[in-house]
């Protein structure tokens, strides 16, 4: 058996697998799992998406930072796995909060096509409008699948470059199962010293 020696902060573009991998790591290491979007809902009574669309980016970033602070208060004595929102790379206060808690930043680097395909798979095309897409795409009012991919392209390139600069570790998930990708991630954490054999192992 192994345990985390420091908290793991999963980063990456929307639909890169942060929540899925976070839950698998939490189960493997028998440690808490937190999702910043879930914490935003818990603290603010509104989803991250709704805050972004109705109150704007600045208010969303404030809510995200508060969520990160709340999470860090819970991991003082025990490392945890934390899944962040896709835009946390643009929120310096939130990143500083997670970093000051000793979190190891892990970038899940999926291809642009994989991420955009997953976004469009969840999209709802209705009466010339597209629903259930990321707020940063929705606010540009796309009308077609091609519009979504074009808008997403710029965000993907800029955010991925930022994630590369922030990451302590990077995993490029392959087309194999989530469990197989989780095994690769565990190996990376062990090599990096972020996990070790537990005292009871």
Summary of the model, kept short:
The protein is an alpha/beta fold. The protein contains nine helices and nine strands.
Descriptive account of the structure:
The chain is α/β, with parallel strands linked by helices and 201 residues long. 54% of the residues lie in helices and 15% in strands. The mean pLDDT is 92.
| Contiguous runs where pLDDT drops below 50 for at least 5 residues | none
Compute the CA-based radius of gyration: 17 Å
The number of helical runs is: 9
Please state roughly what percent of the residues sit in beta strands, choosing from under 5%, 5-15%, 15-25%, 25-35%, 35-45% or over 45%. 5-15%
Q: What characteristic shape results from the CA principal axes?
A: globular
Helix share bin: 40-55%
Oligomeric state of the chains in view: single chain
Distance between the termini: 5 Å
> What's the order of the H and E elements?
EEHEHHHEHEHEEHHEHE
Question: Strand sequence of the main sheet, in spatial order?
Answer: 3-4-2-5-8
Q: Can you give the mean pLDDT? A: 92
How many distinct beta strands? 9
What's the topology here?
Layout (H helix, E strand, L loop, with lengths): L1 E3 L3 E4 L6 H12 L3 E3 H9 L3 H8 L1 H18 L6 E3 L8 H9 L3 E5 L3 H11 L1 E3 L2 E3 L3 H4 L6 H22 L2 E3 L6 H15 L2 E3 L4
Parallel strand pairs: 2-4, 2-5, 3-4, 5-8
Antiparallel strand pairs: 1-9, 6-7
Helix pairs in contact: 1-9, 2-4, 3-4, 4-5
